[in-house]
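Exercise 7.
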Amino acid sequence: MVFNSAHMLRQAGFNSAAEKYYELAANQRPNDPAALMNLGAILHLNGKLQQAEASYLQALQLKPDDVITQSNLQLCRLKVICSLSKFLHVKRGNGLIEVNGRPLEMIEPSTVQYKLLKSVLLLGKE
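Solution. The predicted structure, written as tokens, is:
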């Protein structure tokens, strides 16, 4: 019931309300990879990229071979990189690269380098 409400709200374009219902669904079924993937997808759509990534990773712990979740995770990470690229600065001379004022060596390599599986964000059904 909660999942269906979330799905209907998302389809109607009420993403903020849908997020609350997807979160309820994920809390009710914390071991359901579909609930976690859909929570990740709505968080992703709502621009909450770190939370989306965490939700996708939880889903993949439960179902590592889920291609849709893998793809969505890669797209989420790419979006993080694109948003960081606005703040990427190269200081000439010493070759230091900064992201948001932090030296690149302080940024985890996984944050900077990704491969895409697909170029679309996919939402699943229960």
